[in-house]
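Protein chain data
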Amino acid sequence: MFGSALIVQALGAIFAGVVTLGAFQLSMSMEAVSTEEEFTEAMGPILAFVAGTLGVSVLVGFLGSVLQGVLVVPVARSVLNRRTGFKQMWKLAGRRILPLLGIAVLLTLGGLLGAAAVVGIAVLLFTAMGPGALLIVLPLGLGSIVLFVWIGLKLMLAPAAIVVERTGVYDGLLRSWQLTKNNWWRIFGITLVVAIMVAVIAQIVQIPVSFAATAIGGVVSPHPDQESLASALVLSTVISSAVAALVGSVTFAFQASVFALIYMDLRMRRDGLDVELLRLMETDADPDGIPGAPSVHPGNVWPPNGGPFPSAFPGQRPPA
């Protein structure tokens, strides 16, 4: 899990480092701007930098959505104390890569379109009403954040359902929506606590690293000029990006584990998956598969066509 997360985080760190160095070059070039015409010409690179920053964020989020589904495999197998190697994890999850890519595209585009719609409405309101539009834009922004969090938590189990239950994109979203029904506040509380823990741990590690990178930069370039500043920035960016990738890999794997365990917990509460897991543990059946997959016990799995639960499992746990 750490190795897979490290690959994604390393890609994000590389792109973020390139964007940081590009921002430094822009700041250096902006110092030479003295006329309005030169400023207009410099706006092109600035807009490119902003687009690059947003692109890196979207890319990391997109890859994270795919990886979240992949990392469900070792967590689900660990429930039965079954080890999962790197190759085996990707082999089991590889069959569901296309639906995972589809759900990642859908969630990413949905988030971008929602944010663009809110920003567009705010711009139109400020254009039409001036500063008085703040009375409308502020509640609109807060309401949009609440709606985004609510929908995000309702759909966050879709990658897990796609991989474990082998559903399609639409059925995965529907399955996640149904599993989180009447459990939203509990999931929100768990997710919030985990997010706070991850943020605190990341800051504890990265703050001293930032100071160390700054100190090293001072040693490398004791007499600040453009060339020495560039060298110091490259060095500090490499160090910070490497540490950020390592910390991000650990925290992402931890968060993905929590989401996967939430999924398994809800399957136990609604589908009686714990009964099936006990049977698998006793018989050691399907040792190389994913617990809870259709090949193990079709009665415990959401029907691929989105229909109702089988009659033996009327939407709740069967009697033990």
